[in-house]
Amino acid sequence: MFGPDGPWPTPWMERVLPNVVRISEALTERTVFTRFIPPAHADDMPGRWRDFYRKWQVVTRERIDPSCLRLVPELERFVPPAKLFDKTVYSAFADGRLALRLADRRVNTLIVTGAETDVCVLSTVMSAVDYGFRTVLITDAVCSSSDEGHDALMQMYSRRLDIQIELAGTREAIEALAG
Which residues are CB-contacts of 125 (< 8 A; sequence separation ≥ 6)? Predict the structure, then answer.
């Protein structure tokens, strides 16, 4: 969906994808990929989501090429043992299932990569903070279709939320995991 040929292309994806792969290789057994799955029809969603999907009918499951809903091949190869977690809204935590799964596994730290910095990543990271997780955002493994949105959020993460959201590069994160 967010690839170059998808309905919501994210130009930086090609640049950050190798870093997402490196993180996934280092943590394959503990990796959870979240996948945004739109509704079949706009009217399947509540409230303003309905309006959103009326505007973006091209991404509803009745219209989108199903291959657009798959993980990119570079990441798909990790599943299994990596887990795949489908979500229907921006935050991976919205319905509580992910928080329960992580609590069952006694997870206390999340390393976050993905798209889009200023939409799904933002919503998921803020929810992770609300749940009290140590949240590490990998700065060179997140991307957006909006340079302005990405840059603004990276500034907010580093200046306003620096106690609750840690920023690290891929190399730094992998070295910390190995050490």
Answer: 112, 135, 137, 157, 165
Q: Which CATH number belongs to the domain containing residue 164 in this structure?
A: 3.40.50.850
The answer to whether position 47 is within a domain reads no
Q: How many CB atoms lie within 10 A of CB 149?
A: 15
Before 116, cis peptide (omega within 30)? yes
Domain count across the chain:
1
Model confidence at 127: pLDDT above 90? yes
Classify residue 59: in a domain, yes or no: no
Q: Does residue 60 belong to any structural domain of this protein?
A: no
Give CA separation, 55 vs 41, 42, 59, 150, in Å: 12, 9, 10, 23
Q: How far apart are CA 98 and CA 72, in angstroms?
A: 21
Question: What pLDDT sits at residue 134?
Answer: 96
Where in 127-164 does DSSP place strands (E)? 134-143
The tally of CA atoms less than 13 A away on the side-chain side of residue 143 is 17
The answer on pLDDT for 121 being more than 80 is: yes
Q: What is the pLDDT of residue 69?
A: 93
Is the pTM higher than 0.85?
yes
